[in-house]
UniProtKB/TrEMBL annotation:
<protein>
    <recommendedName>
        <fullName>GerMN domain-containing protein</fullName>
    </recommendedName>
</protein>
<dbReference type="Pfam" id="PF10646">
    <property type="entry name" value="Germane"/>
</dbReference>
<feature type="domain" description="GerMN">
    <location>
        <begin position="72"/>
        <end position="161"/>
    </location>
</feature>
<dbReference type="InterPro" id="IPR019606">
    <property type="entry name" value="GerMN"/>
</dbReference>
Amino acid sequence: MRERSYSKMRTSRALVLTVLFVVAIGAAWWFTHRASSTVGDTITVYYTKADGTTLAPWQVTLGPARDRASVAFYAATQTVAGPPSNIEAVRFPPGTRVRAVDVTDAIADVDLSREVAGSSPEGSFAEAAEFKALVWTLTQPALGVTSVKVRVDGVRVATLPGGHLELDGPLTRSSF
């Protein structure tokens, strides 16, 4: 009799563990796929105001592609292009463009053209402001990205030539 009770307990535990495993897999799937389903018709793109620290959002209308990688590329491109010319903002160096954006899990890997390394009269002030806008744009909840890695012309660099902002590790909102 005791053996039968023990067998039932083992079966019950196995069933409970199986149900918990299935729930965990379902929750993991939901968390990784919910970002792509929450992108609407617009996305928020940030720019840094001329004071170098204040972020300002502006809404940009999306085209037909709504997958996470396409939206991330478009958002990064809009950030690098900057707000309309009549708005005072810190801007990326002229000619800077986004070559690619790869999104894996919660990391966006952004490849910028070599013009990003161009000198800016504001130095570290401008570098931090430029990348702050890029990171805040790409880490908004709709994209499901929490950190941004940067490459310049396909190469991971420790810093830009001015050496003001470390780029060899992932950047997060708390980096600024």
